[in-house]
Design a protein that fits this description.
The protein has 183 residues and is an alpha/beta fold. It has a single domain, classed as P-loop containing nucleotide triphosphate hydrolases (Rossmann fold). The protein contains 9 helices and 7 strands, in the order βαβαββαβαβαααβαα. α1 packs across α8 and α5 packs antiparallel against α6. The longest helix is centred in the last third of the chain and has 14 residues.
Length: 183
């Protein structure tokens, strides 16, 4: 089973179905599963990860590509053969989220999470270095990113390189601009 995760806006919804098709696997969207299971609560759309994990355990097909930003919190380590974390340069991510109509506070929250690699860190902690890879989707089309993922799943690369955006934002001015809710 292949897991695909990443900060909102990194390309999961566009890329995962292409990967699933190319691998001949079923595609499972964790957000759709949470909605259909009525596990989304509150104004902010919070999901009970424990309940979603139980639902996933009950319904998960063997040959699947499972995707969503909640993946590191619901997919058990032993179920994942590989996990891909989609990454996107934070300034580009900010524009993607703005184009989707995200509220300013949500944009900053997600850009900050991508900048410091929260989902990436959680995926590495949960699944380990041998099962976890990162793919930069900043400048690639969904098809190109999907092809890179399919190639990785077939070749089992070792020592996949981690993405580190923090080096690109090495000044207060750059950080203030990135994390500003204005402009």
């Amino acid at each position: 089973m292949l897991g695909i995760t990443g900060t909102p806006g990194t390309g999961k919804k566009s890329i995962a179905p292409i990967v699933a098709e190319r691998l001949g696997a079923k595609c499972v969207n964790l957000n759709d599963l949470a909605k259909s299971s009525r596990l989304i609560e509150g104004k902010e759309g919070e999901v009970d990860a424990g309940k979603l994990r139980l639902r996933l355990e009950r319904d998960l097909p063997r040959n699947a590509v499972v995707y969503g930003h909640l993946l590191p919190y619901v997919l058990r380590k032993e179920w994942a053969s590989k996990v891909v974390v989609l990454r996107c340069e934070p300034a580009v991510l900010k524009e993607r989220l703005r184009a989707r109509g995200y509220r300013a506070e949500k944009i900053v929250e997600n850009v900050e999470a991508e900048l410091i690699g929260i989902i990436s860190s959680d995926a590495y902690d949960r699944y380990g270095n041998a099962k976890t890879w990162e793919v930069d989707t900043t400048r690639s089309s969904p098809s190109e990113a999907a092809e890179a993922i399919v190639t990785m799943t077939k070749s089992s690369p070792r020592g996949a390189q981690r993405v580190d955006w923090t080096l690109d934002y090495d000044s207060g001015a750059k950080l203030r601009f990135l994390l500003s809710t204005v402009g």
